[in-house]
Amino acid sequence: MKSTSFNQLPPELKVEIAKHLSPKDLETLAMTSTNHRALFQPLVDVSKLLHYVAHSEKSAVRYMLLKEINLILKRGSVTDCSGRTFEGISGFEYALWALDLDMCTMILNCIPHNETGHKVLVKLLAQYNKVNAEGIKYTLSGNPVTEKHFDFNNTIIKELRVGERLARGIRMSRDVSVVDQHWREGVGGAQKLIPMHVHLSYYPKPQNSVNSLSTLDTMMKFRQECVDAVKKLLSVGGSTSNNSFFPNALSKISKKTWLSSDSKLGKDFALYRGVQGKVVVKYGAPFEHTTTRNLTELSRLFNTKANDFINFQAEFEKRMALQNQPRV
């Protein structure tokens, strides 16, 4: 069988192949020639938009949509910060699934008040109705899932309730290992599944990580790392006078985002929000009242967003009325 180079393939087959490339590889391919740029740039733009929506980068989304509003109707594939992979999804549909209603409203604000804008609005309303009726499909760890929107109840709220129950049991058993492990893996693991916009609003990455950390936890962690470092140094006949050998636990944490691929969230620690909104890294479970407060706040947040999702059709009706007004 005679081999065929990529350049010899028909354009429609090239596009189909390109859909399976990573965003970075797709952008590289588009830059290989003028013809490829013309052919693949639309796919690159859709991929970028989906990335920005999934990461709740509203300014970047707004910039792209003000240049080309029809991008919001285009479909593509995206893997978000939680590891969920969505195939054939639009940016608006992802924002609906994530309950990022601020993003949805911003998208509607980008729609021009003209015939093109009216057509876009009608199509977005159809997308909303379909999501509300049939849900969104994605895969997580190889498992297919269909749901209308992100499920707070069976993720973070469920794990916080378990943590609250375990914390009550500690008063009697005095065994903190079980509750601490659940805090790190159960609560922390659920926090990794939360959409980015919730992290940005409820668990924002602090500018000064040192001030955001639990002092006791940090000192214990740092002390243990220093002890391990000394043991390692002495085992090879070294000297303890070299201060640069000691690891700096604080700086290692501060260089990471909570949802980066190499984050230890869900393995070594979980997060909680303090009374003044300060995000705290915790290696062991916090006091019961802290877990209860976070549970109450996140339950309230979910109920608000779920109701906003249900009532979002009223926003469409308002926009439709504005679109139908005579244009001067």
UniProtKB/TrEMBL annotation:
Pfam families: F-box
Listed InterPro entries: F-box-like_dom_sf, F-box_dom
Domain F-box intervals: 3-53
Membrane-spanning ranges: none
Protein name: F-box domain-containing protein
